[in-house]
Amino acid sequence: MAVKKEKSAKRTRLINNTIVHVVLAVLAAIWVFPIAWVILTSFRAEKGSYVSTFLPQGYTIANYVRLFTDTTLLNFPKMFGNTLFIAICSCILSTFYVLSVSYCLSRLRFKMRKPYMNMAMILGLFPGFMSMVAVYFILKALGLSEGGLIRLALILCYSGGAGLGFQIAKGFFDTIPLAIDEAALIDGCTRWQIFTKMTLPLSKPVIVYTVLTSFIGPWVDFIFAKVICRANADYYTVAIGLWKMLEKEYIDSWYTCFAAGAVLISIPIAALFMYLQRYYVDGMSGAVKG
After folding, report:
1. Hey, which residues does 44 pair with through a beta bridge?
2. 3-class SS at 44?
């Protein structure tokens, strides 16, 4: 009887595992298919968005070549450089702000600590673009809405309020034992030394998460970039450029280039994730928890 029960249990587990794997495979195919279609469309030889076939009938790299050589509508290399510069600067500042605010709220006790966290939670309920008109006029009053200062204006927009997004990093810092800080204070360390030399090395997973979200935000943003850049094409980001390609007067001739641009802008995000992934895994396996 015991042998029969064991065989029945194994058969049941096999059936359950098969069903789970089939469902996961279907979901994975559904998730991957749009990405694969965009990649195939970026190599499509037929021009225009209105074609009779769903999949390309011919393939070419001319769409990628055109992005970097044809500047009659947009200067894609310049837009790519603008976006990369803005995203990197915003990522560095935002990561520093988020981790600093999170550490202070996790480890320090001061009078306005709880009111600040409540205020941040309430402000987080409202989308950021609600303030874009006010932000634009503030930047205009400061002279940051024209010329090369547009890049600085965008960096300030993306990183200025980053400290309000402290919740996840603070929750992670709360799991690090206070005894570590107390021992370091007894040894004569300052708060800054504890933060940089002890807390951050134990917080690689949340640092990776913060870096990724801080980079992706400016990289894909359209609303703030469009409001601040307006008609200054020299300072367009890739989001504005890709949107421009889909306007009704350009979509028929630039649609496949739009797909090529969509593939290209995904490369820095994928590369950053692949590079930081090992630090995430190392941090999860090596963190000291209590």
Report:
1. 59
2. strand
State the first-to-last Cα distance of the chain, in angstroms, to the nearest integer: 46
Instruction: Give CA–CA dist 148/88, Å, rounded.
Output: 17
Alpha-carbon distance values, 69 to 14, 43, 65, 76 (Å): 56, 16, 6, 9
CA distances to 76, 87, 172, 270 from 73, in Å: 9, 24, 47, 28
Residue pair 276/283 in contact by the 8 Å Cβ criterion: no
The predicted model scores a pTM of 0.82
Burial class (CB in 10 A: 0-12, 13-18, 19+), 190: exposed
Rounded CA separation 74/241 (Å): 7
228 by Cβ neighbours in 10 Å (0-12 / 13-18 / 19+) ranks as buried
Other CB atoms closer than 10 Å to residue 98's CB: what's the count? 27
Of 181-195, 207-221, 265-279, give the lowest mean pLDDT range: 265-279
Give the residue-averaged pLDDT of 38-50: 82
Nearest to 261 by CA among 85, 94, 41, 84: 41
State whether residue 61 is helix, strand or coil.
coil
Full 3-state SS string of 150-212: HHHHHHHHHHHCHHHCCHHHHHHHHCCCHHHHHHHHHCCCCHHHHHHHHHHHHCHHHHHHHHH
pLDDT value at residue 17 = 87
Which residue has 């550490």 as its token pair?
Answer: 103
